[in-house]
Amino acid sequence: MSSNTSSPNTVDSPTQTEPDSALAVARRQLRRAAAFVDIDPNTVERLEDPSAVHEVTVPIERDDGTVETYTGYRAQHNSVRGPHKGGLRFHPDVTREESIGLSMWMTWKCAVMDLPFGGAKGGIVVDPKDLSTDEKERLTRRFTEELRDVIGPNTDIPAPDMGTDAQTMAWIMDAYSMQEGETQPGVVTGKPPVIGGSYGRDEAPGRSVAIATRQALDYYDKPLDEATVAVQGFGSVGANAARLLDDWGADVVAVSDVNGAIYDPDGLDIEAIPTHEEEPEAVTKQDGELITNDELLELDVDVLAPCAIGNAITEENVNGIRADIIVEGANGPTTFAADTVLADRDIPVIPDILANAGGVTVSYFEWLQDINRRSWSLEKVNSELNAEMEKAWAAVEDAYEHHPDATWRDAAYVVALERLSKAHDARGLWP
Ligand code: NAD
User: Fold this and answer.
1) What's the start-to-end Cα distance of the chain, in Å?
2) DSSP secondary structure string, 217-273?
3) What structural domains does the chain harbor?
């Protein structure tokens, strides 16, 4: 379907030598995209590493009176275009390396959306399910104190991620503000609206996936109201994307959760299916033919939107994919090797750093509302998000058309890298 072909021959071979860690993938994608851009090699070298990684120990008193010490990280990748921005995870698999890789993705995501932010990511190595609410609050407050010198509304602005939520952000804002001696809502985004959070923030990543799907269908001359869509994952991203696409007239024929998928070739009654938040893992209890997640990925649909987990489309299942277009709702749902096969098969992949960037874009709106002390209506948030997505889409489409060898992912990276490169050149090297 895509007129562009696969890989420039100056990049890594598709047969992988590095494992698919977030950092390895982020570096490989950077080197691949740099081959398309006239960029100073020193800038590429700088972008391969974070500007700082903060590792802290976070001791807390457990409810039984014992003291436990956890490890936390904050990787700050690049701030040439503005303060660092990115999520904080509470998860047992958090590592220094993963934090760095994810912080790099945030740099590209902010740059492709032209937001005045750079990338960051971090978290604590902990399973939040093992903690009471009081313990989680103490952990969050102490972590905030450990990071207080390196976060702030003008330096690094965390947001929710796996295992953290609006309440976690409210605790961070409070802990930070109490120590700074003034209320600083702009230190985090993803807060409850009552303390400066933005309307529309929760739905934003799914909304941007729906907008990217609409733009992609339009580019390939497929009317939205004639399109069939399969969505893997019915959580915050997948359910919001599916509901909007259904509203806009598409036939969402399959959705899934961790237990499996439901399928109806005539279109599912999407509004009737509870989201992960409304009733966890309830998809397979709804009307429709039961199929597996693997079968969902192989449906013959116009659009496949993997919105659940990373590495969903791999070397093992990629040849079974029959969708005409893939729109990445999850972060990193396509492995590097699978991506190359899809490019060779001319199946366009609209990349995560563009498709799910609605989250960080509305986080930017939230930050603007916080520093201006003026909140926006939901209508304004959604209309501004639509405008920013269309602007970013146009820039990526332009790069895609100008580089006949580029995939859509390459094109998004080209847009991001060109902006980063120009900013580095303009600012020069200090001192
Ligand atoms: P969520 O927890 O709200 O929902 C996840 C959904 O995926 C659930 O329906 C769950 O049952 C399903 N799922 C879990 N494991 C699965 C598996 N192995 N196979 C099939 N389905 C499975 O999560 P979310 O916030 O929607 O995030 C989904 C993805 O989108 C993640 O990769 C996340 O990093 C990414 N993302 C989230 C946001 C955000 O702000 N929520 C923003 C950008 C990207």
Assistant:
1) 49
2) HHHTT--GGG-EEEEE--SHHHHHHHHHHHHTT-EEEEEEETTEEEE-TT---GGGS
3) 51-184 (3.40.50.10860), 204-355 (3.40.50.720)
Do 148 and 155 contact (CB within 8 A), yes or no? Answer: no
Helix 204-219 and helix 358-372: axis angle, to 10°?
130
Ligand 1: residue of 98, 255, 257, 353 to mutate (most ligand atoms within 8 A of CB) is 257
Residues belonging to the active site: 121
User: Which distant-in-sequence residues (6+ apart) come within 8 Å of 157 by Cβ?
Assistant: 83, 84, 85, 117, 151, 186, 187, 188, 189, 363, 367
What share of the chain has pLDDT > 70, as a percent?
96
CA of 203 to the centre of ligand 1 (A): 13
The 10s digit of each residue's pLDDT in 6-42 is 433 333 333 344 447 889 888 998 999 999 999 999 9
